[in-house]
């Protein structure tokens, strides 16, 4: 056990200065020095060790009304983080404990203890609690099993399949008896990863031709479940290949996050009438009741090596913004993590 470091007087954090229009630009943000204060009653001070950057953060940079409050201008942004408690003024959490919380984008955070979750660095690497065993993992688990009502024998199509959520969706489907799992990704290297490492039955590079044609070739018997991380032409293609009583779980639409004009919707929605298909959006925050079951089941798969995961690790808080922009560009394979 190493000695817990004494917190500095100031530490760095990222602020949103202005709301991006279209692609975020560096001038929308600033890395600033802020006072590191002592925890108040019921709070802990955490030295963040790993930070998460995720596509949903783009939505919080806009002032538009959404399911979560927008980031405030001139204040530290938020996101998943895991770190070591260096001072505690709360029962149940001690100095040197490690916790998962949502005050990322900064080196030190004063966290309300009731919003922090203790994690065990012996059971899994700390960074795993931001990805495969964290919010992204639970998103995959809840979206596939609950929202899309996956059942053994289903044929499953996943877009953004080499990302943190998508790669887990495909593997969980295989582990639970899918008849066929197809993934789309944005490079030939990622396609190879899906089939050779993650066990997908087929995969294609969406940049190599129309998605609808590539999906029909990869899933000649159609799909029963589509897990949507992309939207746009992928959603239209999935509706076109949907089998009778097919289900579509809408997790994200990264293809349109930086659009300044509304993207056209799928032109073939009427096909849902023939197929009796269902499209349902979901948010992981509505499914935290599954957390204990998820950690138990997926944790066992991770430990046994049956479920594989990748992380793209960027070092240094000064590179936090670039890591986030990298997620929007698709630079990451698996979960994008910032190590402090």
Helix and strand arrangement:
Elements: E1 10-16, E2 29-35, E3 43-52, H1 57-60, E4 81-88, E5 98-101, E6 108-112, E7 117-119, H2 135-147, E8 155-158, H3 164-175, E9 180-185, H4 188-196, E10 202-205, H5 211-218, E11 223-228, H6 232-241, E12 242-250, H7 271-275, E13 278-281, H8 291-304, E14 311-315, H9 320-329, E15 335-339
Parallel strand pairs: 8-9, 8-11, 9-10, 11-12, 12-13, 14-15
Antiparallel strand pairs: 1-2, 3-4, 3-6, 3-15, 4-5, 5-7
Features:
alpha/beta, 7-stranded mixed sheet, 6-stranded parallel sheet, 15 strands, 25% helix, globular
Describe this structure as you would to a colleague.
- It is built from nine helices and 15 strands.
- The protein is α/β, with parallel strands linked by helices.
- The strands form three sheets. Strands 3, 4, 5, 6, 7, 14 and 15 form a seven-stranded mixed sheet that branches. Strands 10-9-8-11-12-13 form a six-stranded parallel sheet, with helices on both faces.
- The longest helix has 14 residues, at about 290-305.
- The mean pLDDT is about 95.
